[in-house]
Amino acid sequence: MSDDRSDGPPRRDVVQNAELALLLEVAGTPKPGNVDRHRDHADLHFDHFLAGAVGATPGLRLAAGDGPLGEAFERAVGGMSRQRGGNSQFGALLALCPLVRAASRDALTREGVRAAVAETTVEDTCSFYRAFDHVGVAVDDPPEGMSDLDVRQGSGAIPAVRERDLTLADLMAESAPGDGIAAEWTDGYPRTLRAAERIEADDGPVSERGARAFLHLLAERIDQFVATTSDAASAREATDRAQAVLDDEEDAEALAEEFVERGINPGTTADLTAAALFVALERGVEV
Amino acid sequence: MSDDRSDGPPRRDVVQNAELALLLEVAGTPKPGNVDRHRDHADLHFDHFLAGAVGATPGLRLAAGDGPLGEAFERAVGGMSRQRGGNSQFGALLALCPLVRAASRDALTREGVRAAVAETTVEDTCSFYRAFDHVGVAVDDPPEGMSDLDVRQGSGAIPAVRERDLTLADLMAESAPGDGIAAEWTDGYPRTLRAAERIEADDGPVSERGARAFLHLLAERIDQFVATTSDAASAREATDRAQAVLDDEEDAEALAEEFVERGINPGTTADLTAAALFVALERGVEV
Fold first, then answer.
1. Candidate ranges A149-153, B132-136, B218-222; pick with highest mean pLDDT
2. Closest-CA residue to B161 (of B128, B183, B138, B116)
3. Looking at CA atoms only, how far is residue A268 from chain B in angstroms?
4. Which residues of A touch B79 (CB under 8 A)?
């Protein structure tokens, strides 16, 4: 028996909190347009998210260690992909990895996460590209002058990555303007940390706090995943109508039904919600 | 990279399948009277089951190893109990431990599980009693002449356990007549293995297959947990009405609403459903 048994059973560790954050994220309802406790998509079922979270844990355990963060991410995505729904949590895992690394060093702060990001290397970028071999991910065309870095090539882009000597921090900085997760990587997770504070200050079941945080995140910024998978007008609409829910001008349940039906899926916002739930759990929010 | 990467990412291991089985069980709906994807109890929320499953994994990992099975169970229960809902999955973990041990030996058969049970010692029984210190569990009075072994004493019963030189297999055999999980331990898991076959032969999302298996399990035998927490008449009624659902004479959703409202909670049947889902996952059912 280790010492931490003296006050009862051991608490969840960093990896368990990351996994639980993924589970609480998908359970939270209503999250308009997303799979949640009450809604599935045509080809992506709640069960796929459960299997995705469980499958990702060995990779998340690497993220909590000292090895390359890119390999941890690639391993997490590989494990996540062992279910028939396809991409359930690619973006959530990308958002989580630097947070898990920082938390494993007791440095889950803006500075701690910035440090984890700053340490990434060209090899981490190669692993990041390999992760796209495991699962189809909806992404935009790459920025001007970066077509050799199109992530849709998966590991096929690795020669170009090495040629350009691009660390994962560099790549994220290039992508930050059009990608909500890359922006968090680059800026020290400001939106995630604010959403975590909201979850901490909220009350009720933690998954429901996550759903409320999701609405605030969606209302504050366009979800690029909606712009990519639907169009820019739908992305604007999603943000405006999330604000309308917060202003009590729209019903969240009705909006959730409508968005699922129309295929408007604010996936990046869900990814950041998972990240914020992780931070909140690490800060002691009790389930 | 280990060899198993050559055909893509590694598959879930035994422990991951056990955890996923717990998650798929609680997600399965409708499971009349239980917490499921669409229903909570007053003090026991879906989130508590998510945290319970995640928290149980270090104990389940011990169950997949070579150490004492009772300690693995106690550790799983201790980790499960690290949430505010109380007892979410005590019985499911008890049902899973011998199955996980057998699966870790590639012997997930009636004989393999019997062997895992037969190896238990008096020390395993002591650990079993310690597990009751972590969380309140609704149980009946002990059988005649066994009041010194009342599990409600938790570790307080350990001197009597040692005095009687009672292995965990012995204790389960004594309890089998009135306890559906102890009966599985004692008889080589016949109901669990049949339910797993049903899940394998079924189709659709695996959590929904679990919900259908639940109805069959409830229809085939009185749920002792209902008899303990409600009364014998309610337990009979639960079984009869599960059969009525199978006969298309009752609506499962309406029954689920009614049972939750009346506090009729077929918990043992849910525990066996989790066990059956684990067996089905181990046998290759894909999520």
1. B218-222
2. B128
3. 22
4. 9-10, 12
Could you please report the per-residue DSSP string of chain A? --GGGTTSSPPP-HHHHHHHHHHHHHH-S--TTS-BTTB--SS--HHHHHHHHHHHHHHHHHHTSSS-HHHHHHHHHHHHT-STT--SSHHHHHHHHHHHHHHHTT--SHHHHHHHHHT--HHHHHHHHHHTTTS----PPPPTT-GGG-GGGGGGGHHHHHHHT--HHHHHHHHGGG-HHHHHHHHTSHHHHHHHHHHHH--S-HHHHHHHHHHHHHHHS--HHHHHHS-HHHHHHHHHHHHHHHTTSS-HHHHHHHHHHHT---HHHHHHHHHHHHHHHHTT---
Encoded amino acid at B56, one letter = A
Instruction: Please check whether residue B176 is in contact with residue B257, taking contact to mean a CB–CB distance below 8 angstroms.
Output: no
A81–B9 C-beta distance less than 8 A? yes
CB B218 within 8 A of CB B269: yes
Task: Give the CA count within 13 Å in the CB-facing half-sphere of A143.
Answer: 9
Contact B9 A57 (CB under 8 A): no
Report the distance separating Cα B212 and Cα B246, nearest Å.
Answer: 9
For position B7, what pLDDT does the model report? 63
Q: What is the pLDDT of residue B10?
A: 86
Best to test chain B binding among A45, A50, A199 (most B CBs inside 10 Å)? A50
Contacts 24+ apart (CB under 8 A), A157-166: A157/A129, A158/A126, A158/A129, A158/A130, A161/A122, A161/A125, A161/A126, A161/A129, A162/A122, A162/A126, A165/A122, A166/A122, A166/A125
Measured between its terminal Cα atoms, the distance across chain B in Å is 25
Show which residues on chain A lie within 8 Å of chain B, measured between beta carbons: 5, 8-12, 16, 19-20, 23-24, 27, 37-38, 40, 45-48, 50-51, 53-55, 57-58, 75, 78-79, 81-84, 134, 205-207, 286-287
Q: Report ipTM (2 d.p.).
A: 0.96
B11-221+270-282 is classed CATH 2.60.40.1180:
no
Task: Give the residue from chain B lying closest to A81, CA to CA.
Answer: B9
Closest CA to A95 of A230, A193, A227, A165: A193
User: Which of A132-146, A222-236, B25-39, B107-121 has the lowest average pLDDT?
Assistant: A132-146
What is the CATH code for A11-282? 1.10.4200.10
Compute φ and ψ for B36, nearest 5 degrees: -145, -170
Q: What is the pLDDT of residues A105-151, one digit of tens each?
A: 999 999 999 999 999 999 999 999 999 999 988 888 887 888 899 99
| Peptide bond between residue B30 and the one before it cis (omega within 30 degrees of 0) | yes
Write down the domain spans for chain A: 11-282
